[in-house]
């Protein structure tokens, strides 16, 4: 009995990889094994960086809030502590947006947090 290789499935598997590697430079888009390695590494970076993007946005928000609170005469850590002690539940994304786009509203929040 002859050996069956299931050629259509093998070709489809390779074609899927080669289509995904379109736009890569040189052998990365032309040679199957190189394309497969490049794609696997790219997918690994994509998975890792989806997590890292959340961290980098949080760092950006904290930097913006810190800059805005220091202009109001309070540090970031004291501001966040005052917010939590006053039960003002705003996340850093919302606070950074207010600090950047609505400074008057942010000043009111800082004043409410400072109030003893």
Structural description of this entry:
With 116 residues, this protein is mostly helical. It has one domain (8-114): Ribosomal protein L20, C-terminal domain (c-terminal domain of poly(a) binding protein). The chain has 6 helices and no strands. It has helices at residues 7-20, 27-30, 32-71, 76-85, 92-101, 103-114. Helix 5 (92-101) packs across helix 6. The N and C termini lie far apart (89 Å). The model has no long low-confidence stretch (mean pLDDT 94).
CATH architecture call: Orthogonal Bundle
Secondary structure: number of strands: 0
User: Could you give the distance between the termini?
Assistant: 89 Å
Q: What is the domain total for the residues?
A: 1
Oligomer: single chain
Into which percentage range does the β-strand content fall? under 5%
> How does the overall form come out from the CA principal axes?
rod-shaped
Just give the CATH class.
Answer: Mainly Alpha
The largest β sheet comes out as: none
Portion in helices: over 70%
Q: Overall pLDDT, averaged? A: 94
The helix-strand sequence is HHHHHH
């Amino acid at each position: 009995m002859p050996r069956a290789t299931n050629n259509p499935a093998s070709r489809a598997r390779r074609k899927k990889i080669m289509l995904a590697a379109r736009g890569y430079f040189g052998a990365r888009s032309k040679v199957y094994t190189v394309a497969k390695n490049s794609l696997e590494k790219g997918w690994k970076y994509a998975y890792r960086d989806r997590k890292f993007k959340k961290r980098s946005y949080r760092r950006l928000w904290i930097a913006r809030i810190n800059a805005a609170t220091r202009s109001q005469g309070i540090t970031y850590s004291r501001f966040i502590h005052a917010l939590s002690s006053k039960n003002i539940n705003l996340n850093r994304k919302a606070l950074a947006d207010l600090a950047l786009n609505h400074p008057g509203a942010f000043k009111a929040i800082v004043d409410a947090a400072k109030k003893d």
